[in-house]
Amino acid sequence: MKLATLTSGGDCPGLNAVIRGIVRTASSQYGSTVVGYEDGWVGLIEDRRVDLYDDAFIDSILLRGGTILGTGRLHPDKFKAGLETIKRNLDDAGVDALIPIGGEGTLKGAKWLSDNGVPVVGVPKTIDNDVAATDYTFGFDTAVSVATDAIDRLHTTAESHNRILIVEVMGRHVGWIALHAGMAGGAHYTVIPEQPFDIAEMCKAMERRFQMGEKYGIIVVAEGAVPKEGTMDAGLGEEDEFGHKTFNGMGQIIGDEIKKRLGYDVRTTVLGHIQRGGTPTAYDRVLATRYGVNAARAAHEGNFDTCVALHGEHIELVPLADAVAHLKQVPEGRYRTARTMFG
Amino acid sequence: MKLATLTSGGDCPGLNAVIRGIVRTASSQYGSTVVGYEDGWVGLIEDRRVDLYDDAFIDSILLRGGTILGTGRLHPDKFKAGLETIKRNLDDAGVDALIPIGGEGTLKGAKWLSDNGVPVVGVPKTIDNDVAATDYTFGFDTAVSVATDAIDRLHTTAESHNRILIVEVMGRHVGWIALHAGMAGGAHYTVIPEQPFDIAEMCKAMERRFQMGEKYGIIVVAEGAVPKEGTMDAGLGEEDEFGHKTFNGMGQIIGDEIKKRLGYDVRTTVLGHIQRGGTPTAYDRVLATRYGVNAARAAHEGNFDTCVALHGEHIELVPLADAVAHLKQVPEGRYRTARTMFG
Amino acid sequence: MKLATLTSGGDCPGLNAVIRGIVRTASSQYGSTVVGYEDGWVGLIEDRRVDLYDDAFIDSILLRGGTILGTGRLHPDKFKAGLETIKRNLDDAGVDALIPIGGEGTLKGAKWLSDNGVPVVGVPKTIDNDVAATDYTFGFDTAVSVATDAIDRLHTTAESHNRILIVEVMGRHVGWIALHAGMAGGAHYTVIPEQPFDIAEMCKAMERRFQMGEKYGIIVVAEGAVPKEGTMDAGLGEEDEFGHKTFNGMGQIIGDEIKKRLGYDVRTTVLGHIQRGGTPTAYDRVLATRYGVNAARAAHEGNFDTCVALHGEHIELVPLADAVAHLKQVPEGRYRTARTMFG
Amino acid sequence: MKLATLTSGGDCPGLNAVIRGIVRTASSQYGSTVVGYEDGWVGLIEDRRVDLYDDAFIDSILLRGGTILGTGRLHPDKFKAGLETIKRNLDDAGVDALIPIGGEGTLKGAKWLSDNGVPVVGVPKTIDNDVAATDYTFGFDTAVSVATDAIDRLHTTAESHNRILIVEVMGRHVGWIALHAGMAGGAHYTVIPEQPFDIAEMCKAMERRFQMGEKYGIIVVAEGAVPKEGTMDAGLGEEDEFGHKTFNGMGQIIGDEIKKRLGYDVRTTVLGHIQRGGTPTAYDRVLATRYGVNAARAAHEGNFDTCVALHGEHIELVPLADAVAHLKQVPEGRYRTARTMFG
Question: Where is the protein situated, by its record's location annotation (chains A, B, C, D) (predicted)?
């Protein structure tokens, strides 16, 4: 049997661990071979592929961030227009099953390919943890760890009194990274896209800390955080494809507003892409490896039109349709639990 | 309402995060107070208790390894003989519910107290991840991370050819830490207590690597690993309370045997207690905090005779009896998956 | 003998290690006692002091960022006006020698006190490494490590082609952190305050990378970087007390300009205060401890009007006057060496 | 001009950073080329060499532990017998200058080659920091950091009272790693090869801690530590080439003896090779890069028979003869300073 894999969409620590898991399993358990397409769907359409051998190189990629296959973005229209090319390329290369590793958009594309006759097993990938069908996605734990490490460091800076420290973390549509990093880091306030924030309440929380003799307050801001309608002027913002309004530099915007309202010193850290890079955590490497092993198994067992998913302790197969059904947002109850620890 | 908590048994990163979660929830959500008993059951019997306030100190313990309450061990007979003292001490202190944080032994004690009329909500704690009722326990991810970091470092030492590097990790009865660290670290062989090992097969795996041109091999050894009956002389060993035979210094024993059989240079790292200490990972802090929040809620809602547990994404309450039903071992299937990645 | 110490100015990992070094040495070697003044000079004038015992607490602060004594800033005029109060407070407390730990401003104050009859031994503290009298200052290695770790992570993000990643690091007047982090992290371009940058040259360096098939470029920007006169519009900026022009958000300014000129995707990370916080590196803890030990010794041996300094492997005493003589900038030769590794 | 380089002796984080520094400098500053010989002197004699290009691969090795060239050991007699072969190989390859990177033994070999007409610039490499001619060697800071991180973790394990935790670190002949890690980690006792230890005094120090109410004690043991003549039975040991007696498993030996004398629980961590591996610290990467840049410069400027060395802030050239003059041991004064912090 011959498998093909590709990585698509934004970076995510653990991508290489999935690839390694697929290649090792195909080779050692089934005597199969694996090819990788470069730069996501683009490489599949342009037939740019490399053989992935079960060798020392593949072994060494476990620790590496990024993806050895590269990623790319392709407009859905171009992707769909390429169906025949894709099928021909897979045929010509003798590929029996395709294992695309990607986020919601990629999995939607995978579903469409599957509906059009391509044998597909998907692997969910999103640093934001917003895929509904799985408990957790790899890369998320690494991003949370990086953000938590930053918050940890801020706790010990106490240069002056009444200082507010803001950490802007990833999360344009969902607040999982902010929620977990804020809880792990012991932030004093956390705002997420799912729950429009009230700047006045946030200011009050900071004031209360200072009145109780605390020197500083730490606020975690998901980049997609939005103010409650009419509570503050955050500029015009932009509407994204989901109709969700986002603002660039939300950490800075909030910081400026707090400074204006309270007059305190405010310092902002913008973590940016360092959350997407670097060696994955042990957790992410185990999860990604298990995804790879199980995706290769599913392909060999003919379980197509599926997606691997973590349910509790187990890796299971779910219908590919389920994986793209909806964006997994932070439920109100989880935010309420997080709020318990604010202050 | 007044809650009491205590920590019992071996160290485990995240204990302080649980305590903080209990205190903050009790205070901010219910206006309740919390006392902590020192050194586990011992302090409860000796009535050594401290008030735990929702203040800057409690806030600061989130990152700290160890436990601010201390832990201790008490023989079950002494514990049972102390029932009346325990009840009187709790009564005198006005405690409405007890939240013991501990491993299998502690939870068994908690169950017995519960059966004898003490309102109890348990919090499972085991660095070994061997509590059946919950997907994962806090501290486990930290231990796996420490072990994985050690394995990562070994991969780049290439001083000489044909060297075998052994890492002995924790796990006297179950192999979860070895299994996960071995997979996360890309070890070439991993042995766990659940699956008696065949030293000849292990040697063969190392030989195969060298024949393929690899310079080195890394073997992860759970401290409780045992050889297959009759395959090698590992000394007398000792039988533990479960009738399970263990050997002290299994990493060294295996290393010596490999050296004897193959003649290669073997170097051993014994991680020991560094796996139990230090700042918990972000994952463990989130899990421990959620355990604390939910245990405090359960106590306030009168859900006694229960234990908090992680099921998928959710923290749920399980009957305390379930939490101590049996030791969660590594199932054969999971070890098989791990083996896929050996070599 | 009775020593007093205080910490002044911005945060710096290692401050607590110095304090611990002073207290342990005074106690174990000389049987002396130590008091600490809170919030820098402010606490000295307001006579807010705490006894520092050689106990488990002092032992535990070694790993902690921040300072247990707090820091503060005081206007030089107020400081000078407080001379008599300071002397009386020290007298009343029975203090025989004062060990202020601080940056250039603090050491200037210390020199002035020394000239006015207060027995002083200074400890240089600057995260920026800009004190001329010593090879290195503690805190610097930690800041460089944090920045390097961020750069490391960016190397593996390869989401799309032709992306430029900017990391803004500390360094308003000197570029040591940028220089070292850029070299340690393998940045492709680094700009420092000492060498006004040419945006056109920077753009050309990025273009050259992409032409050679590289996917991305990483630029390290010291916050105090300035463009060469007339080469780009960076806004008005502000002049600081040294007559040096600085611009807020230099990382963003450079990023916007590059985007405008080249049209590529640019992402910016602003590390901010996370460089000043957290557990100090082993290097900084050793340096800070040795400073503390040697400052306490100097005080007991009556070597006043001095400052501890690192020269090669040795901690030596230099005249306090030398420590504040001038700001230690990055010499041209060191920047030239760094440039060798650009590209 | 054409340079050659090779790495010899034990592993050391930073080797690749030196190689990268040499290649980049040769290429970007002088338009020269570089070849690398594999496996140290062995590859030079067997003429196994690879071209090292100034490309993305060389750029990427900065973060990697180990050495891309491999290392090896060769008996001095064989080395000397190979002189003519070496000279012919270098000649045939058109090599103008050789830059060997290695420890004392390697530099002695380099000196001998130099005396026999080979143009040589040496780069000192020893994880143990025992080269006399330089303040610090790369790899040392990484080893100290790994050991310190382990000690940090042990501080927070407090499972039971009166426990003694032993960490065995590298250092067969000199105690620099133990000295620095013990000071950075806040160990309560540290033993080094240079100062034979008195087990009775060590036990007394632990007893004193427990009497003062401390729960645990941490002892750092350099692997080459030796007991004072007649104070305890440590087995026979072996004499090394310097006539220095060493014992295998000194951490365990000391632990057993303490347990025998005091009866307390003793746990031992043996770090082993994890101290030699993994990503170098920022400090080591800067030092190693500067060594590489300056060695390449020295070669181009014809400054042969030299060795690069760190003196204070500067990289300087010292006569190769000086670099191998003697082993740099921990001076008594430094150990005395360390002792100040014991207890």
Answer: Cytoplasm
